[in-house]
Amino acid sequence: MPSQSGIYHEDYASDMQLRPTTMQRIRQIAIVAAVLLMPFILGSNELRIVNQVLIAAVGAVGLNILTGYTGQISLGQGAFLAIGAYGCGLMMAFFNVPWPIALLLGASITAIIGGFFGLPSLRLKGLYLAVATLSAQVIVEWVIKRWDPIDGELDGRTTDALNIPSNLLVNWQWVDANRWLATVGIVILIGAVLWVTWRLQSNFQRDRFMAYRYLLYVVVGLIVVFLSGLIVILQTPMLSLQDVFTEDWRLNGNEYAFYCFAMPVTILVIMAATNLFRTHIGRAFIAIRDQDIAAEVMGVNIFRYKVLSFMVSSFIVGLAGGMLALHSTAISFERFTIEVSIEYLAMIIIGGLGSVSGSVYGAAFIVILPELLRTLGRTIAGTDPASLSQFNRILPFAQQGVFGAAILITLIVESGGIRKIWQNTKDYFRLWPFEY
Amino acid sequence: MTTNTKTETLKPSIVEKIVAWVRANVLLCIVLVVLLGVMIAMLRQAFSSGSEMQKFIRLTYAGLTDGSLLALIALGLVLVYKSTDVINFAHGEFMVIGGFVGYQLLVWLSPNMNAPLAVILAVVGMVIAAVLFGILLERFVLRPMIGEPVISVIMVTIGLSNVIAAIVGLVWGNNAQRLPIEALPNNLFNESGRFEIPFEGARRPLFLGHENLMLIAVVMLVTIALLIFFQRSKHGIAMRATADDQQAAMSMGISIRVVFAFAWSLAAITAALAGLMIGETSIGVSAQDIPVVGLRAFPVIILGGLDSITGAIVGGLIIGLVETYTGGYIDPSLKEIAPYILLLIVLMIRPYGLFGQEIIERV
Predict the structure, then answer these.
(1) Distances in Å between the alpha carbon of B321 and those of A434, B273, B315?
(2) Structural domain boundaries of chain A?
(3) For A42-168+246-431, CATH number?
(4) Distance between CA atoms of A354 and B12, rounded to whole angstroms?
(5) pLDDT digits (tens, 9 = 90+) for B170-211
(6) ipTM for the complex?
(7) Which chain A residues touch B159 with a CB distance below 8 Å?
(8) Closest CA to A342 of B158, B235, B165
(9) Per the CB < 8 Å rule, is A128 touching B347?
(10) Residue ranges covered by each domain of chain B
């Protein structure tokens, strides 16, 4: 590879690429391989943590659009997660809406409410706006706590938790009874997926999504393989779908099914967010963050784009909330407190403000850190009951302290976060033996 | 000599000063006059009617004491914001650690000496600890943050709050602690420590807890001390100058670092006092519950205006009253969100709070 002092584009196609260098493409392929292999290598417990990372990553990308890219500080992340989760959960519990539709409806409701709480941004800025979003947090938390119809039941007593019904998408009994009809339906579905994919990639400028086309192919390939597998099962008289798929996602540690759902959603969200900042809307967001008055002078309608940013961000956060609901058997207000909002802010700060990949790094860091500490502590404490009780006493404080220290160290040492550290490391090796 | 006499004659008389102050603080004066009117009307009613009025007075009293506590907390936040442009999300944890330091000193001191001396020594110890804490904080955490965006500075204080909470948890544990002796003298009142007001139409007299009256007194003292400090002392004027324009202040020979350390120390002192006051109430010195009280101060500073001491006091009292009135008259559960709803409404009308300074931005 020739040593280079920059990336020179010679045609539009290479200029529009998201991943212009060879190393980035290699990394891309490595990521795809990891994504495909992960469920087969990891155990159920590790896969649960991976799923939590995926949910957090979606939420952090959403928050980063608002806080990192548009510069509007939000302390109401927990509230928007809650609206997404409850929107999705209530729709499934009370109206028997299938979960994909419930997920999207929940996210849309979150977008509308998020837009409403974005209205004060017309007049408020910075810290005043931050506290205004804090009021969203407090009000939504209060509604969840006090509003009786959404309370669930546990052993005959009402609790604050909302039970999420089983998330089986299809009535498998019916499918087993009408095998040929189902097969035809699935073949049509495969055709539709392939057609949509083809339209998608030929409708856009051909090379615009060069790198992400591979990911799109991978996702589509997974779906097609899965659906073909269904056909094989349907056409084998000894097997019944009911036996294969009665497993509820959330029970028996069946994290694999959730992973198959969450990973494509996360990839889609990351793709959408990355490409958002290649459009005029994303550029307007960044202009508002950098200097809002200048942006207004340049013809950006500040109010409109601020509210739009609130809505886009809330939509994605609502999606994360819905995923959270689908991942659990019951949800309650305790999972959407102000601490959760702070945790998400910490994710985007540690990962890197104004960066989609940074949100993912940060989400992984914040989710994995406490688990890592727990494992580490267990190893040190051993099996001795006295030291084990000591360990149980210290652990929550240690987790909290390390969490705070991670934020402090990130901000004091390298305020660009993990993304910037990664960038610096790459630059160091690329430019070695020179300093710059 | 002649110049001296000239300045003598130019000095405004006390009446002129009052008129000028009223002109400068019209809004505050209106609020004060209305509050005074309400108080007078209340007192007139109080001795002529029955238990409904007693309820009103009780609620007002509870609201005022609650509001005084919030005002004291908000003062610490405003002090920091005014001079360093940082909103301190670790203030709740400042109160926790201040409260626990006071508690620990009282535990050590109270068996060896009589109560008032122990309390005074404990408060002195708290103040020294708070000053040290403020200086260390400024040097190691906040100085690297100069020039960073708002969100980074917010997150630094949040990270700090987590670290402090972890330290407090490791040292003192999770349980609420009672102060070993009453930090405030209670022999001013009857033997149960309450102040009695007999009522004509009501079945029982109205009791006012001594700790509440003491709380109001402490808040008033701290406020007056701070106002005098800002108006008269060299350091106070330096802090105001820094708040106004850092560059200009620096070129006038003011050490920004000293001012910042001073502001953080002052905030830590007010936080420690507030922590001790909460320890005196039914909440106790608790690592879990004191930060919750601290969180309630955020609507106060936004309502009053981030950079106004007057705003902190008035906002605190307003929020305290609004909370107890909604709790008492509408629905106890609405108490938690009433301040935030009020806040949203006020912010739509006055985006910089009631007394906040409007920032005129230029590109």
Answers:
(1) 65, 22, 10
(2) 42-168+246-431
(3) 1.10.3470
(4) 55
(5) 888 878 777 776 655 554 444 455 555 555 555 555 556 666
(6) 0.78
(7) 346, 403-408, 411
(8) B158
(9) yes
(10) 63-196+206-294
